[in-house]
Amino acid sequence: MKSLYKYCPVYDFDKLNEEYAIINVLSNQVTFSTRSNFNDLFDSKVDFKIPTRIELKRMHSILKGKSKRDFKEVFLGETGKNNFIDLKQRINEVFDKYLFFCLADKADNNLMWSHYANSHKGFCLEWDASKMNAEPVIYQDKIAQVELLDTIKMQFGLLDDGQVGQNIWGALKVKLNEWKYEGEYRVKLGNDQKQLIQMQNEKFALVLYEPSLIKSIIFGCRMDKRVIDYLDENLPTHITRKYAKERSSTIEIVVKN
């Protein structure tokens, strides 16, 4: 995939210097969100499967020494049930700190223009996908399920943490099928990129990006000319100017003449 797209709204045409989407693009920054800031209630939610008593005893039989005693006390003792509840809570607290940047796979998606670009009054940025570590979202009937036993095995050295991490990352890319129209791709902010954070709170972070990642800007079908002129004047010249045009039953993207 060569390009990915970010749909951006514009609301107040008289105060363009206060519009967050315009501020972001002119400041070379984007918003990475935690899952608590997603508009979908079930996005990135995980169903943690609690292991059965038989599974726990099977794992206990493999362990030795102090690990065997610790495991029995924590997970097979009287407080085992509550300890699983606490473990789920701690894992969810970690997940709630992950930061994601979401993009779409098409620039001519009418629903995306309607839902995320203020009914075609906003714009869409074309990103160079070849320079981004973006992965497709998985769409399915139910939220993702993660075996809680796998995380316990990892803690006791019985499973590779890389594989468990991949399973968890896969679960955090799951959305319900009703959102499939978005064609979403997702970028997770890595530890090596945290120096790019300009501002952060519990729901989102503003993160700097290299300007060359933006290939073009697509002005919406209903975009006010004042906004077009303002962006055209202030954006770098390497960014191609394009227009979304309303056709019979489709959206066509054309390059500015």
Description:
The protein is α+β, with helices and mostly antiparallel strands and 257 residues long. It has 2 domains: 143 residues; 106 residues, no CATH class. It has 8 helices and 15 strands. The strands form 5 sheets. It has a 5-stranded mixed sheet with strand order 1-5-13-14-15, covered by helices on one side. Strands 2-12-11 form a 3-stranded antiparallel sheet. A hairpin with a 4-residue loop joins strand 14 and strand 15. The radius of gyration is 23 Å and the shape is elongated.
Keywords:
elongated; 15 strands; 257 residues; alpha+beta; three-stranded antiparallel β-sheet
Question: What is shown here, in short?
Answer:
The chain is of the alpha+beta class and 257 residues long. The chain contains 8 helices and 15 strands. The chain starts with a strand and ends with a strand.
Question: How are the elements arranged and paired?
Answer:
Elements: E1 3-8, H1 20-26, E2 29-33, E3 46-49, H2 53-62, H3 65-75, H4 80-95, E4 100-104, H5 110-116, E5 123-128, E6 135-136, E7 138-140, E8 144-147, H6 148-155, H7 161-171, E9 174-176, E10 184-188, E11 197-200, E12 204-208, E13 214-219, H8 225-234, E14 240-246, E15 251-255
Parallel strand pairs: 3-8, 7-9, 13-14
Antiparallel strand pairs: 1-5, 2-12, 4-10, 5-13, 6-10, 11-12, 14-15
Helix pairs in contact: 2-3
